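Reviewer has doubts. Consider these tokens.
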Amino acid sequence: MTTSHKELELVSVTKRYGATVAVDAIHHKFQPGGYACLLGPSGCGKSSTLRMIAGHEIVSDGSILLGGSDISDLPPAKRGTAMMFQNYALFPHLSVADNVAFSLKMRGEDRQTRLAKAGEMLELVDLSALSDRLPDQLSGGQQQRVALARALITRPDVLLLDEPLSALDPFLRIRMRGELRRLQRELGISFVHVTHGQDEALALADEIVVMNNAVIEQAGSARDVFNAPRTAFVAQFIGGHNVIALPQGHFAIRTDAVGIGDPSAGGMEGSILAVEYQGAHVAVSARVAGDQEVSAMVPEAQFFTNPFNPGDPVGLIWDDANLHKLTA
């Protein structure tokens, strides 16, 4: 497949459903040839944004540009994008090969040509041996790869994925994350993936776009968004952070940068709320002054050298250099 590096850009894109604004004048340039995750809670506008890019929702205001051309008014098949739906939407009466080749049939390509192209796609997703099976004879992971092959056969400039891993069990979800990342790197095309899973976004994305209340709250590399959240919402939603109110303002600090000890040794005093063993680490949460809750991710060996239980007094300690000031 030919590598494409067309830039996808959203210019003041808005989506209204009656009086409700689902997406509010968002601007963003996606990294060409990168893996981007739209991340946010249910109802934040991420799926509406994806569907507008795909052409399955009409843009109320603004423009969607691909390679500098406005595709906002083009039908889905003419945009240079392809979408993989959450439920895979496979035709139950068609074989795997015919499912993959379906869009080429709609374009009028002859059966021999489209099945040859379907064979190439099935080889790409390692399903050549199952080309004659029906969808209900496949596992969930295999169905997902068929849906991927069907989306990729149109050779899109941008592949759009709407929560593609949500129907899979946790073990398979992790395995398929690796498959998606491998495919994106091999193909060199832009992937835009909607998820509400923070771990999924961090594992997959070159670029994370965090949405909240119909706007983009923060966008950047996965590492930058995790290590330098701008707002309390991003810090809390991305996970692994505490938001702490101090006299100088609100700060984020990573849970693995917080230590625990005897309150007489100093630090912020509190009482243990919960202790959760997580293997390599123990998650400890404590209530501190002002009814705030602070969590610490303590290495397992360190915790059990001096264990704490719910109700125990505790001192929470950190290096002030690890505090990250929030703008809102």
User: Anything to note?
Assistant: Residues 71 and 183 are 25 Å apart (CA to CA). The mean pLDDT is 92.
